[in-house]
Amino acid sequence: MALGLEAKLGESVLTTKLDVVVNWGRQYSLWPMVFGTACCAIEFMSAAASQLDISRWGAEVVRFSPRQADLMLVCGTISYKQAPILKRIYEQMPEPKWVVAMGACASSGGVYDNYCTVQGIDEIIPVDVYISGCPPRPEAVLDALMKIQDQIKGESVLEDRHKDFKGILD
Ligand code: SF4
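# iron/sulfur cluster complex -> structure
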């Protein structure tokens, strides 16, 4: 819109970019889905409970159907036997979607450096934010959520962020 016309319309019209307005909606309405396999999932429950109240970031609508979620939190150890299930559930989530690896086990296998444990879920699916700790404190979940929101702010709504990702099951 020409600058002169915009000035004439005054405060009745707001011009912006598609990325900005869509990402504003996305970042404050994340619907998490917890893929909880071990102790870290308990810390997520604490982050979602009333004392810390994840709804302050607009992410309280926790879903247990991947088709209704756009933020996957992997909380716990993943074995190679579970890996195809994790990948299938990730693929069932609609785009756009984001992934948090919560805790040492999900991020790197943790202390379970053995033949049956995936050494980090980024061997299977793309990860946006890693949370360190065993277990991480629930506040760290909120920190990860804010990092995802910051990341969304800078994304293009037309770009496929994961087009080059190749995991061990691809
Ligand atoms: S990182 Fe620690 S607390 Fe979390 S699932 Fe692994 S062993 Fe349990």
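# post-check
The chain has a mean pLDDT of 93.
Helices lie at 3-9, 18-27, 40-48, 83-92, 103-108, 138-153.
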